[in-house]
Structures are given as C-alpha cells and as structure tokens.
Amino acid sequence: MSMDKHSAPADFLRLAVRSHPLRASLSREMHIRKMPPLRAPARMLQFVMQVSESEARQSIAAITDLLAAEGVAAAPAERFFACRLGDLGFAWERHTEFMTYSFTVAGGGAPFDLTPFERVPGWIAQLPGVILRSSQIALVDAPPAEADIARWFSLDDLVISDVAQGRARIWSDFRLHPRGFGQLLIEDRGLEGAETAQLVQRLQELGNYRKMALLGLPEAQQATPIVTDLEQRLTAITTQVAEKEADPDQVLDRLSALSAELAQIVARTRYRMSATRAYADICFDRLRRLDVAPVRGYGSLDDFTERRLLPATRTCDAFTRRLEDLSQRTAWTSAMLRTRVDTALARRNRDLLASMDRRTGLQLRLQHTVEGLSVVAISYYALGLLHYVREALEHQGLHWPGWLDLALIPVTILAVGLGLRQLKKVKRPLRSDADH
User: Which candidate, 199, 191, 167, places its Cα nearest to that of 287?
Assistant: First the structure.
C-alpha cells in the first residue's frame, strides 16, 4: 500500500495531542538560566533581591512596564528573560526566594566604572523586594597592574585563584565596598565560545547561593538559647515523671506547653534550615565545577568559601539535629507519662473489679439468705392455709389425723423450695433471650 510522502509529517504532528501537559515547560527548563554571550573586555552589574510570592508577581508586572518604556514589547516569561536595551544587556531570572537582575555592557574602560549603568538605579528603585547582594564584575583581557589591584581591593583579604583549568584568573576581597557593591575581577586567559558566560554564571551563582545559605545562620543562632531552655525544662519534666508523688495532670500540662513551643520553633525554622542545606550543596557543586587552583601567597576561592560556609552549614545542621533529638525525647517522655497514667488507671480498674467481686459475693449470699427465708415464710403461710382447711373439715364432721399435720410440714417446705428453684431456672433463660 503506497503512502503519500507528505502525509507522514502530518501524522507525526497529530501525535502532539498526546503530549504530557508539562512536556513543553520541562523542555524549556533545560534551556533557561543561560547567561547571554560575553567576551572580554566587558562589565556587569547584578542585583539579588529577596522577594515574597506577592512581591515576585509585582516584580514581573514592573519589569513588563519598564521593558515597554524601553520599547521592548515582550514580557518576561516563566522564570527567565534576556534582551538588549541599546548598548546595555539585561537578564532577569526568578528563583524560589529571590530574583536576579543582571546588566552587562561590552567594551573597555575603567573596570569598575558605573557610568555605563546610569539608568540601572532608576530601574531597581521601581522593583519590590530587598537587595540581598549586589556585585560588579569586570572582565578584562590583559593582566591588571599591581597598583590597580591595591586600589580596587583590600590586600589583607585579597583572594586570587585560577579557574576553568587555568584559562581565567579571578581577584576579589569579597567585601562590600562604599558604593554598595562587591567587586570581582576576571582575566580571560584563553576562554573560548560560551566558556566566558558559563564562568561568570557559575561565579555569580556561587556568590548568590552562598549568601542565601548564610541566611539560616542568624536564625539558628537566635533560636539556640530557646532550644537550650527547652532541653533543660524537658530534663526537669522527665525527672518529675519518675517521681511517684508527682501529679500526672500537672506534668502533662508542662509537657504540653513545652511541645507547643517546640512545634512553633520547628515550624518557623524547618524551611530555612533545609534551604540552607540545599543552597550549600549547590555552592559546593559550583565550586567543584569551577576547577579552582590556588595562587601561592594568596587565599583561594575554595578556601574562602569553605572556611565561611562550612561552619555556618554545620551550625545549622547541628541545630536541626538538636530539634529532631528534642522532638524524639519529648515523644519518649510523653510515652513514659502515658504509660504511667495507663498503669495507674489499670491498677484502679483492678481494685474496682476486686471490690465489685466482693460486693457481688455479698449480694449472692444475701440473695441465698433471702431465698431461704422466702421458703420458710411461704411454707408458714401455706401451712396456715392448710390449718384453715383442717378446721373447715372438722366443722363438717371429718376427722384430720394429727400425724398428717406433722407430715405436711416437711412436704410443704420441700415443695416450696423446689417450686422456687424451678421458677429461677425458668426466669434465667427468659432474661437471656431479652438481652439478645
């Protein structure tokens, strides 16, 4: 059977209706966060602004208006957008907790001269959020002079490292300079193609994620004294649980209050601590990919990052483990208290059942006594009735022998006793049927 050669593409296109709803967005996700092409010499400004969810939406609307004022009709889509604004390159990227705004200008000139970025402050002023990090990057194609290095950076904190397998060298003191920026100088020593943009992107991501990771440290330090107090209180409560004379209700109130405070701390810090660990992992991944080599006589990028980031992340990890341990100990103490209460309740139930058994035995004996008295009473009245029968017969002239009176006494008692016993047997099945 022949097939038209033009029908095959249409058949394949019809298969697109069976695509997963997220297929296109997942494909785009693999291509976003890509730094626009860069070549030395060039300069770059980047702002990292922490935003809430509502501020993130406001930022997108504000960027759309700013781009429209610059004659760019396209609106930022999804999580990344890049365009040219005359001689100024612009890139916007949305992250979970923050947004980055990058501005680049090609060409030489003073490495940290802000004149080409004179429009940027007006833009940033219209965007919501708080500035968490702002940095200047100068990309040069020749080694800088020692005098310039001493003028741009603090020599006491100067970090110099070769990166990208020696194809670039970086200088920075990682200080916040008077103009409000951190400064990073990169010398291109043989980067090709997209390597320059990739290097700049990894260096910026390293700094950005390092700053986000450090946000967890103040929160852990602030909550540590509270956790210490909770641990001491839990120790006192656990000791009180072991005391026989302690009031379980009072202990339970104290334990419940402690559990509520602990739950509040966990709810307030859990996200920040887990985010710190995630950001730190990304930092160490970027650091590994930079392939850092130290320069003798100076601090290196990997040493600077690890020396400052590792203690912070370990403090946050230790704080998280303390919370987990405290939660576990609280659960154990609660289980101990519950066991003590259950044991006391079982003991009271045992005593109550024993008391009920004794009471039931007394009731049973009393019932047997009453039944015996009932037999005597009924027999007495029955014999009285027979006495009246005897008198009536004697008035009729019939003689009632005396021995018959003596014989009727045991017979009557026996008959009444058997009758009551039979009556009890009849009532018991009736009661059982009623219960069913």
Answer: 199
